């Protein structure tokens, strides 16, 4: 696809040509099969702990959006995959250095050309987003969508770091829970259900 064709497809909300740029979801899940995945959220409280070595010890490290990494001791250094719902500039991408980029937002108009043409680019299906939104009763956060995707994978273990559902706000911005469209109480309950039902999930405290 040319850049002009991409721009038109994005503006006209033509899902099919955009999906043609994406690797199949099955390929992404196959990459994670049997492996230990660390999903790193952006809670400010994570910076107070020393989980960095444990994060980097995972087989796959997935970070979210701006992926703040204030210190290796608290956050680790690797980014095998970056789950995005916002556009990042070149300097931010060079800092994060993601292996694969997963565009999780239903808002395709925000999808940058550089992301859509990144090697191994993945576009999260609108149907998956709508299903999770119906379950939560609100638009899901990027973290919630990633947790849902991982729950449907055959990974061996899923470690969640930096998730406190806005109790300590976010390292990547100043907005509070009331300033975003997500229902963090519903997302927290969803995670608690997974922790009770799926032995692969572990939610780590910040300290």
UniProtKB/TrEMBL annotation:
It is a single-pass membrane protein. Its main location: membrane. Gene3D superfamilies: Glycosyl transferase family 29 (3.90.1480.20). Transmembrane segments: none annotated. It comes from the Bacteria. InterPro entries: Glyco_trans_29, GT29-like_sf. GO terms for cellular component: endomembrane system; membrane. The keyword Protein biosynthesis does not apply. GO terms for molecular function: sialyltransferase activity. It is found in: Endomembrane system; Membrane. Keywords: Glycoprotein, Glycosyltransferase, Membrane, Transferase, Transmembrane, Transmembrane helix. This is Glycosyltransferase family 29 (Sialyltransferase).
């Amino acid at each position: 696809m040319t850049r002009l064709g991409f721009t038109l497809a994005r503006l006209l909300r033509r899902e099919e040509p955009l999906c043609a740029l994406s690797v199949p979801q099955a390929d992404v899940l196959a990459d994670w099969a049997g492996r230990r995945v660390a999903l790193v959220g952006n809670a400010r409280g994570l910076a107070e702990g020393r989980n960095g070595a444990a994060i980097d010890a995972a087989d796959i490290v997935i970070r979210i959006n701006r992926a703040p990494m204030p210190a290796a001791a608290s956050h680790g250094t690797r980014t095998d995959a970056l789950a995005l719902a916002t556009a990042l500039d070149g300097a931010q991408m060079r800092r994060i250095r993601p292996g694969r980029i997963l565009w999780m937002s239903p808002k395709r108009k925000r999808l940058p050309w550089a992301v859509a043409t990144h090697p191994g680019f993945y576009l999260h299906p609108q149907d998956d987003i709508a299903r999770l939104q119906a379950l939560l009763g609100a638009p899901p956060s990027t973290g919630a969508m990633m947790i849902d995707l991982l729950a449907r994978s055959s990974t061996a273990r899923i470690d969640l770091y930096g998730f406190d559902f806005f109790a300590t706000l976010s390292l990547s911005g100043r907005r509070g829970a009331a300033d975003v469209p997500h229902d963090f109480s519903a997302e927290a309950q969803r995670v608690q259900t997974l922790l009770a039902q799926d032995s692969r999930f572990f939610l780590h405290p910040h300290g």
